[in-house]
Amino acid sequence: MSVLQWLGRRLASYLARPRPGLHVATSRPGLLAATLRKGDVLLVEGTSRFSAAIRTLTQSTWSHAALYIGDALSASRGDDTPLLIEADVNDGVRAVPVERYAQMHTRICRPVGLGEEEIDAVFGYAIGRLGQQYDLRNIIDLARYLVRPPPVPERFRRHLLAFGGGEPTSAICSSLIAAAFASIRYPVLPDIEVARSKGEAGREQVREILHIRDSSLYVPRDFDVSPYFAIVKPSLRDFDPHVLTWAALPIRAAEAGED
Predict the structure, then answer these.
(1) Where are the alpha helices (DSSP H) in the chain?
(2) pLDDT tens for residues 89-141?
(3) What span, in angstroms and rounded, lies between the C-alpha atoms of 113 and 186?
(4) Spatial CB neighbours of 34, under 8 Å, sequence gap ≥ 6
């Protein structure tokens, strides 16, 4: 093991430790797993130092992303526990149960318009990367940011998450998932080229040509703001505001609302 790898693993172990804090569950127990569909991207607000660095760099709530594959590994594992595939800083690319994040603040981002074979291809790409290591150079860059924030404009900060080695056997959470969707040419946040040409009768025609960005430049928030992923909120399933039970307002608060 090289010195860089040793340092990266030590930093990963330190940065990945959860810090004391309140975990706010987005939905009731069991509702997250019941809502997820194969191919969904689950965003997570983590509590570790590593998560705090990503949230600061990306100016976002979300510090982690995982891909829902459901029971796709049931035959090889011998059980049908609903699973996510993620890139973990210590364990690399792995499959974990959905329940790991059931008590955390999460968001479901769902791709639109894909057929079953395309969805299978997306998580098939991710399954094929199981066992790959996390890009530890990415850890070193984040640790350097935590020591002293770099004097660069905010619009360039996402590039600090792409300083990793880019090795074929390494990945970070969002780049793994972005690459999986890129493998079937499904857009997340592509670069858009506007092409203009003359059509019939001299009328100007405008076309938008999508260019897939380098997957290493993607961060978890990109799935949230992408116009090509629907936001799915488990708590809205069968939601009826008329059956909610509200506590009575304190007398002073009620009086303050009077004219």
Answers:
(1) 3-15, 31-35, 49-58, 74-77, 116-127, 136-147, 173-182, 221-225, 251-256
(2) 778 899 999 999 988 899 999 999 999 999 999 999 999 999 988 766 655 55
(3) 10
(4) 234, 237
10 Å Cβ neighbour count for 62? 25
The predicted structure's pLDDT at residue 165: 47
Q: Is the pTM of this model over 0.85?
A: no
| CA separation for the pair 174, 64 (Å, rounded) | 7
Whether the Cβ atoms of residue 217 and residue 252 lie closer than 8 Å to each other: no
Sign of CA dihedral 25, 26, 28, 30: negative
**How large is the angle between the packed helices 136-147 and 3-15, nearest 10 degrees?**
60
Q: Name residue 18's beta-bridge partners.
A: 48
Q: What is the pLDDT of residue 172?
A: 72
